[in-house]
């Protein structure tokens, strides 16, 4: 769900690269990042999420990428790993405005393609959405393999909804930008049809931390360095309660990239039947090497 930032005169929209493990999602995201001019994009950031890696960055499309005078900033996400917990995908897909489904054209991956497509439909349904309401394109990746399934066969088995599809290779870059920019154009058309007044205002949806938390909150280790900007604390409960009901920490939603190297991570702290929602603000510095 796109959000309007009135102060910055920006509309923030989310696009997720989704698909089977090893299909080329992260490679595709990195290819897009490397092809965009630095003045149009933010830094690439990486975060560990439930034993997987979440990669994300934001960019503003060149040309007429605005709605009612508001600049549109797209935030691109994917999750990579040999086995990604469904909870991580559900978190990243929350509020999504467009999906690039990265399918694997290798013959042995066709069952995984179908399973992931079914999962995508199920995850979107959980948010009251579908492949009709959320713009989606098919990136038929690894099509340059010598034994790749033909595009016609991939269409027949994986694309009964007749989604826009693109023959692609994330290694060479063929078709990757074309698939994404076709999706960006569709999302922009939808945003313009609603107008800035019809898009949710980000200010009204932001969580505000008004109390400190029981103990400092630490995010999972990042490949990049992370320094908490602020830590919150709640009144310390009696020692007997702490012993009987230990604290647990859960992700409450997808991290949100802000201007520069700032990222906000919504968290839920639980102790028995009690819970507290907080926002952890991190400053990320991209590592070199």
From TrEMBL:
InterPro entries found in the cross-reference section: Gliding_Motility_GTPase, P-loop_NTPase, Small_GTPase_ARF/SAR
The Gene Ontology terms for molecular function here are:
GTP binding; GTPase activity
Superkingdom as given in the UniProt entry: Bacteria
Gene3D superfamilies assigned to the protein according to its UniProt record, in alphabetical order: P-loop containing nucleotide triphosphate hydrolases
Q: Give the keywords, sorted.
A: GTP-binding, Nucleotide-binding
Pfam families linked to this entry: Arf
Query: What is the protein's given name?
Result: Gliding motility protein MglA
């Amino acid at each position: 769900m796109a959000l309007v930032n009135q102060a910055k005169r920006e509309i923030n929209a989310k696009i997720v690269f989704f698909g089977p493990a090893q299909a080329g999602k992260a490679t595709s995201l990195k290819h897009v990042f490397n092809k965009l001019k630095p003045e149009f994009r933010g830094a690439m950031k990486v975060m560990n999420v439930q034993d997987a890696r979440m990669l994300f960055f934001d960019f503003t499309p060149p040309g007429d990428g605005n709605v009612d005078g508001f600049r549109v900033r797209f935030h691109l996400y994917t999750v990579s790993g040999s086995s990604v917990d469904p909870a991580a995908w559900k978190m990243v897909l929350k509020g999504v405005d467009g999906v690039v489904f990265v399918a694997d054209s290798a013959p042995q991956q066709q069952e995984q393609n179908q399973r992931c497509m079914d999962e995508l439909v199920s995850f979107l349904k959980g948010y009251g959405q579908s492949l009709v309401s959320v713009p989606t394109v098919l990136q038929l990746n690894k099509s340059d393999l010598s034994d790749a399934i033909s595009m016609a066969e991939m269409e027949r088995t994986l694309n009964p909804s007749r989604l826009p599809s693109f023959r692609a290779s994330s290694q060479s870059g063929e078709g990757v930008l074309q698939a994404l920019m076709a999706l960006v154009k569709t999302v922009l058309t939808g945003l313009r049809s609603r107008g800035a007044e019809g898009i949710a205002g980000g200010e009204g949806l932001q969580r505000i931390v008004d109390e400190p938390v029981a103990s400092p909150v630490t995010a999972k280790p990042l490949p990049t360095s992370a320094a908490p900007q602020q830590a919150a604390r709640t009144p310390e409960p009696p020692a007997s309660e702490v012993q009987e009901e230990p604290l647990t920490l859960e992700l409450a939603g997808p991290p949100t990239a802000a201007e520069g190297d700032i990222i906000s991570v919504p968290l839920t702290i639980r102790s028995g039947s009690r819970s507290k929602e907080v926002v952890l603000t991190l400053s990320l510095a991209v590592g070199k090497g």
